[in-house]
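User: Let's play a game. I give you a shape written as tokens, and you guess the letters that built it. Ready? Here's round one.
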């Protein structure tokens, strides 16, 4: 699918980008990269997760790149009609909380274990979800900030064990 189709689906809605519970650097980078991509194409989105961010590398990443992610407990205004894009995760997986919004899109690099119909789906067997998001910038000639590029590179580095697994 064309990633600009995702922006068209989400435009004029309240949008959340949700990672798996206890997000790691790849999940954070993917969410941040997608948020920046969508913002360039006129769609605002808030990053969210359930669980907690407990890895030092993930906490440091948030600080270094100025990324704001909201715990589900900090989202009292999320409504059923709000749209959710799942990144580095899939609906009905045990590591993803089913939030009240409508999961309309999924971008992931893990195998599908339970099928679900999304309006937009990009699930590819690559080493990191950040690789998929990075490809969106290249495919659409969307400018990327140095912070976003560095975050995506870090997400890829961490999820591929220094570019040795799945690359």
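Assistant: Ready! My guess for every position:
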């Amino acid at each position: 699918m064309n990633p600009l189709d995702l922006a068209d689906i989400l435009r004029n809605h309240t949008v959340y980008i949700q990672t798996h519970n206890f997000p790691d650097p790849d999940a954070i980078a993917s969410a941040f990269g997608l948020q920046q991509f969508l913002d360039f194409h006129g769609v605002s989105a808030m990053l969210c997760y359930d669980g907690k961010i407990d890895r030092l590398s993930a906490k440091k990443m948030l600080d270094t790149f100025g990324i704001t992610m909201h715990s589900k407990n900090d989202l009292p205004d999320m409504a059923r009609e709000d749209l959710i894009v799942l990144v580095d995760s899939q609906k009905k997986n045990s590591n993803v909380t089913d939030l009240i919004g409508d999961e309309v899109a999924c971008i992931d690099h893990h195998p599908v274990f339970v099928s679900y119909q999304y309006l937009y789906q990009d699930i590819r067997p690559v080493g990191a979800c950040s690789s998929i998001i990075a490809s969106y910038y290249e495919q659409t000639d969307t400018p990327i900030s140095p912070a976003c590029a560095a975050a995506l590179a870090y997400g890829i580095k961490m999820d591929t064990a220094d570019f040795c697994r799945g690359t």
